[in-house]
Amino acid sequence: MISGKSKVCGVMAYPVEHSMSPLMHNYYSEQTGTDLAYIPLKVEPGCVEAAVKGAYALNFTGLNVTVPHKQEVMKYLAEIDEDAKAIGAVNTLVRTEGGYRGYNTDAAGLKRAMTEAGIEIRDRSCILFGAGGAARAAACVLAKEGAAVIYALNRSVEKAEALSEIINERYGRRVMIPMALADYGRLEGSSYLAVQTTSVGMHPNVDHAPVEDEEFYKKIDTAVDIVYTPMETKFMKYVRAAGGKAVGGLDMLIYQGVIAYELWSPETVFTRDIIDGARVLIREELEAAR
Q1: Strand 79-80 relative to strand 36-42, pairing
Q2: 179 and 152 in contact (C-beta within 8 Å)?
Q3: What is the dihedral of CA 186, 151, 160, 121, to 10 degrees?
Q4: Phi and psi (nearest 5°) for 104?
Q5: N or C: which end of the chain has fewer CB within 10 A?
Q6: Annotated catalytic, 70?
Q7: What are the strands, taking DSSP E only, across 29-182?
Q8: Is 255 helix (H, G, I), strand (E, B) or coil?
Q9: In the structure, what pLDDT confidence band is assigned to residue 13 with cuts at 50, 70 and 90?
Q10: Each residue of 55-111: pLDDT tens digit?
Q11: CA end-to-end span of the chain, whole Å?
Q12: Would you say 241 and 274 are in contact if contact means Cβ atoms under 8 Å apart?
């Protein structure tokens, strides 16, 4: 039951109708017995400052922030966590005295999802598809966890170069090498760990992958696609058909949400059963929406 004592949180997005976050976070509240309600908030471009000020005035405990507002929102925060600064994007706001503090739980969610899947990063040769905000979070995870090298493949090599410069400076070594996506054939060797951070293959455009050359996927033994709609992307199918292991984006979604929820309600305890239940619930919702 929602009361005057309930904490209120929500997700700022445009559009917001497709978001799984209200389903997920209200499930967490129900299962943990936490007095926290979570709502979708449709915030059009140009209205981010007003939305942040309005949420603070309305005493919102916190917010999630997603496409297209993750960078824009940073201008209107009282504080920004160091990891979020390094990533250059914020996806979680936590109420503090005088304004919101911004965090990025995407990187931590990806790391936890990879750990749960038994994926080792240290000393691995990696391929990173994309050069946007999600790619920056993934690059931080790979570099921080000791990847030997990260080849950043992107349609715009200029964006890959810009991201590589940021990551190499941040971690004090030339760990990231930019490449045009069209030059994927230049990658030598095999046994790559690949992380796919673009929207290629996302519903409804499910018949696409960042690279359509089946032979290329023989170079990848382990892959993560941050897309979770569909649950098995064409990219993942290519990897599996070539004999590799492929993990989808559902666990990243779940764990970044858990980490955000813990920031809003530090006393909340998440059990394995709750995590597994969230996974089943979201899968059912996604299947129903197909």
Answers
A1: unpaired
A2: yes
A3: 160
A4: -125, 110
A5: N
A6: yes
A7: 36-42, 62-65, 79-80, 92-96, 99-103, 125-129, 149-154, 176-180
A8: helix
A9: very high
A10: 999 999 999 999 899 999 999 999 999 999 989 999 999 999 999 999 999 999 999
A11: 31
A12: no
Question: Tell me, what amino acid is at 53?
Answer: K
pTM of the model: 0.91
Residue 63 in tokens: 């917010």
Query: Maximum CA pair distance of the chain?
Result: 61
Q: Minimal CA–CA distance to 249: which of 200, 214, 207, 289? A: 200
> Is the separation of the CB atoms in 225 and 196 below 8 Å?
yes
Q: Distance (Å, rounded) from C-alpha 102 to C-alpha 140?
A: 17
Contacts of 239 (CB under 8 A, 6+ apart): 194, 217, 220, 223, 245, 246
- Catalytic residue selected from 5, 7, 42, 70: 70
pLDDT at site 204: 86
SS3 label, residue 154: strand
